[in-house]
Amino acid sequence: MAKSLMIIDDSATMRKIIMRTMRMSGLEFDQPQEAGNGKEALEKLSNGPVDIVLCDINMPEMNGMEFVKKAREMSSCADTKIIMVSTESAQDLIDSVIADGANGFINKPFTPEKFQEKLSPFMN
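Request: output the structure for the sequence above.
Response:
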């Protein structure tokens, strides 16, 4: 059974690039959703959880770090896997977002192989 996916990034172009790269990775998702920032994503998640979230860090209104904290407060998102996808590469920032509840981190630019490596463990 295909997993559900949400891509959160303030750039519509980047959301399309991530989706295309996901398809190239061979991973299959059922009706992927998109959100332009953490606030919009939380509103969509209040209608029901998704299995995997790919989330940028730097966004207006609510950034990815705030999103992770808020999503982890929602009981419906307890099992949601949150993978950050960002140009940020400072190890202290990565450690911080993982400590706040993210399940992984993928640096931009990314490859289909990187998505395959990071998401495969969550596909069962």
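Helices lie at 12-25, 38-45, 64-73, 91-99, 112-119.
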